[in-house]
Each structure stands twice: as structure tokens, then as C-alpha cells.
User: Fold this.
Amino acid sequence: MCSIVEDDFGDEGGAHGMKEDTPTPELAPNEMCRKCNTELAVLKLNLKEPQCRACFLNYVRHKFRASLGSTKIVRRGSRVLVIFNGTQENVTLLDMIRFGLEQDSFKQLRIVPILLFADDDFISAAGSTRVELLSKRLNVLKQFKSFPAYYTVCGSSKCVELPAEHDGMFSPIDFEQDERRLMDVLNAVRSVTSKQDLLEQVRKQTYRAIAKTLNCSYVFLSDIGIDLAKTLLSNVALGRGCSLSQDVAFCDDRDDIKLLRPIRDLNPDEIDNYIRFCETKLDFLPPEKFFQDKPSLQNLTAKFIDNLQQSFPSTVFTVFRTGDKLDVPKPSSNTTCYFCGAVLDYRGSKTLFATEYSRLVSSRINAACSHEDILLKSKQMEKDAENAVNGEQDDQRQLMKHLCHGCRNIFVDRDCC
Assistant:
């Protein structure tokens, strides 16, 4: 029987009782690579054999190529929009694409990459601070000047081509109207959770809009496994179960422009070592996380997954892989969300009905109500809860019918002007 009793769980929630048994992998002195048996090993990943530098790089790059080859989604010669943000994962993806294009004809990666820098630093920075951030990102982008690159701001449908040779001080065309419009929308939303969710949906809309403008059929994102584990758990809490499988899958095909995640099988250790042992020195920037210092469902989930990654990395992988086992019904005509494109599955939902009914009870029933009043209000609340679930409120009927539950939460959370 289990020997853990209530006294073992103190203020830390029993965290002291959960320790990782797997020791940290250590490399023995002068240990040979188990792959080629000719070179000295330089690293030993968790649950992996010791590897030399060349074998490790081949192993990681093979993961990237295998994800593209096994799915056979990207057609030969396709124009691909690769999102640039300058993080470790993003720079790793760009270097793998560059390496694949430089191979001989048999192993060559046959795509036409086009970089897109979707600037969203204006959300948290302004004036000289934003100019400094823009200069740093453009300096990182200079490492991949062989690729054509475009600039836009989050929430815009227009873009401008970046010059091949720039000095780090770039003056884009006027995007002030697009920036102001997005800031007005974000400021109108009350909770940080809804702000972050809204910003994520706007980013995806921006990627797809620019991809259509540049005649690209695919968009490459640099999400890795730990990022998708955070997305999976946070989207469950946000009520986005109808689109959960597409939000963490290799291919998000809810639109004509497909969002692909070709390095989703990599983990943080592999990314760190790729940057360390790559043939060329790769500069990168830390990820910009807006509203990170404020409480939200996304921030709490990210903190939980980050702590889990330190002690139980295999569990994080299991959480991420759970998304591959999920499935959603194929959408029919006029059954997708106007905002995020997810399948509308609210009609007849008992879960949403119970949630809405509970909210109405909390707002309408108090201690002063008599038994007869409670019975009368109960019947009306059942009707109102069903109408709310089906998006049939009198004041918002035309819009709420066409939004999924997650997007409805954003709309309801806005300030009434």
C-alpha cells in the first residue's frame, strides 16, 4: 500500500515527495561516439547514447527532415512563409532550412523560403526602447540575408520587403494605424487571459493574411514540444477543445493557408546543444513574452510546465503527445468560428449549459428569495442558459452564433463602450 500520509503534504503540495529518479546524464572522459565509433563524444542527451558533434547535428536535422518527409504535406517547389522572431528555436529552424537548401541535389530541401518579421514589440515598448528592440532583431535576421524577408506588424494585412543589406536601423512604412487599432482592441479587453488569447489568434490571422499576399501556401512556425504542451493545457482551460488537436498538431489545416510546425519533436536540450555545436555561430534573442508578470491561465500553465520540464521531462513529452491522439469532426459549410476558424460544437453542450446555468444562479438567486421565487426563476434561468449556449441572446444574436466558446469568452470579456 502507499505509505504517503496526509502529513507528508505540507504547504508545498507534496512537491518534496516527487523527485526525479533518473540521474542527469554525464559524459565519461574520452568516451567515444556510439554512432560512428570514430570521434570523441561531446554530449550525452537524456536516454540517448553519447554522440559526437557531427552525429548530433545529423540526428537533430534528421528529425526536422523526417517530419516534413513523413507527412508529405509540403509539395516540391512550394513557397513557404517562415515566421521570424529571433528566438533560439526560431534561429535553429532557419539554420536547418539553410543547411537543407545547401545540400546536393539528392538531399536538397526543395522549398522556396520567405521570411516574415511580424513585429509586435509595440505592445510593450515604445519610442527608443522599441527602436532598440527592432535593431536587435534585424541584426539577428542579418545571419539569414540570403533569404528574402518582409516586415509587417501584428494585426496588419500589408507588408514591406526588407532590404538585403541594412545597418540595423530600418524605417518601415507607416503602420501606426494598424498598431493603434490592435492596441485599442487589447485595451478594451479586461482580463490578461483574454488579452493573451486574443493576441495569439491575431498573430495567426496576420500570418495567413501575409501568406496570401505573398502567394505562399504554407507557414512554418518554430514551436517545439514544450511550447505545444503549454498550448494544450492552457487551451483546455480556455475552452478551446474544439480546436485543440489543430493547435498542437504538425499541420493546422483549418484554412487554405496551412500552419506547419516542423521542429515540434525537438526538446529544449536539443535546441540548446544545436546552437552550441552548430558549424556557424548563431546569434539569438530571448523570447518576448507579453503580460508575463501578470496572472493569467496561460502564465500559470507555462510556469507549471517549465517546472515539470526540470524534473520530469518525459511527462512533458507525454502531455505534448496527447494532442496527437485528439481529433475533431470535419467542419461543414457555415459551421466554423468567424474569428479562429474552429468547428462550432456548442449546440446541445451539457457542459456549457451547466456553466452558464451556474453563472445565472449566482447572479439572480440570493438569500432573500422565497421558495416560489426560486422555482419561477429556475425555469427562466434554464431557458436563458440554453439561449446563451446557443448564442441566441437578443442583443448579440448575430455574432455569438458564429463564435466558438473560446472566442465568445474574449468577446464577453471586453469593456462595454
